[in-house]
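Example A, followed by Example B.
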Amino acid sequence: MMTFKRLLLFAASISILPFAIPASATSEDNEEAHVRITTSKGDIVVELYPEKAPITVRNFLESVEAGAYDNSIFHRVISNFMIQGGGYTPELEELPAGETIPNEADNGLRNLKGTVAMARLNEIDSARRQFFINLADNAHLDHSADSCTREDEQKQAQARQRGLYKPLGCRTFGYAVFGKVIEGMDVVEQIGAAETARVDRFPNMPVEPIVIETVEPLK
């Protein structure tokens, strides 16, 4: 598996589908929301931003309510960069990924230290359930005026289908920030400092498994 800095498992093909904002992701969800991530290293409390990332927050909370993150692990830890989890069991079995969601990286939020964002494949709209917490200010993960567009992505896919390939002259679309750690950043940094090694196809796996025991909403 490629390293996270090579943008998470580059895919060879790109498929663009139209997305519509679900009826559930409306102003009625624009209330303050928090979740507690209980890990084997301690608790992390995250404030969510439904006004800025309504689709992403809705998708995340649906996974939380379904218990989809319980007893999963942080399977990728890169010091001074990020910690990523929510997709594998301690036995390294892949958990059901769910449906892809639109990328909301253009919501004005930046990948600053302590922010929580969606992991994804190379395709712009390929986030499902895995998330990461930034250990530093990672401006190269932000959406910007130089970012690729879905139209750029579609053109490149069409060129590839014709046997042509020309690298895009723009930056990645970015990674969608949808929350921020407000308690337990010391726990995040402790996880970020964990000793790692290559385990099977995982190049940055903590030597000691770090378990996400539960994720639950806070009222």
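Example B, a separate protein, is given below in the same form.
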Amino acid sequence: MTENPEFVLINRVLAGEHQLYAELVNKYQSYAYTIALKIVENRPEAEEIAQDGFIKAFKSLATFNQEAKFSTWLYRIVSNTAITYKRKSKQKFHSIENAIIEHKQEADGNLEREDKKRFIKNALAVLNATDRLVITLFYLKELSLDEIAEITSMQANTVKVRLHRARQRLGDELQNILKKEALTL
């Protein structure tokens, strides 16, 4: 049985080779930033939250259960850090527009694609923060229900129901937006 290379790296960091933690940061910084950005919707704050999440993870690395995935554990730390920050700052949570655009945008300037993005952005803006997070983690990050449950501190069945209802709400809102759009043509 071969040991997970990531766990070997973590054990080396715990043994005193602290500089190796940079490899984990480099591997997961984009995902950590994206999760933070979805929650706080502010690029500089999301960068700071992602960095704080990595610092918290480093300080708690000895408590990491190596039967779990490091990425899921880290994302939960970043998510909780962002939610705590959001609660403290009392900022309004609008949408995940930037995450969708960054992951899906192409340079062809296709008007239809831009319209779709705008419609999705507007529909997502109506959903609550948890529904947006669940949809994003499932569809954009392609995480499993169990991984999302661990990140959000919900049961897997609750995530499944929440995802289903969020998709329905998103679909209903897209229909409303498209009806309004059709009336303005």
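On Example B: The CA atoms of residues 36 and 79 lie 6 Å apart.
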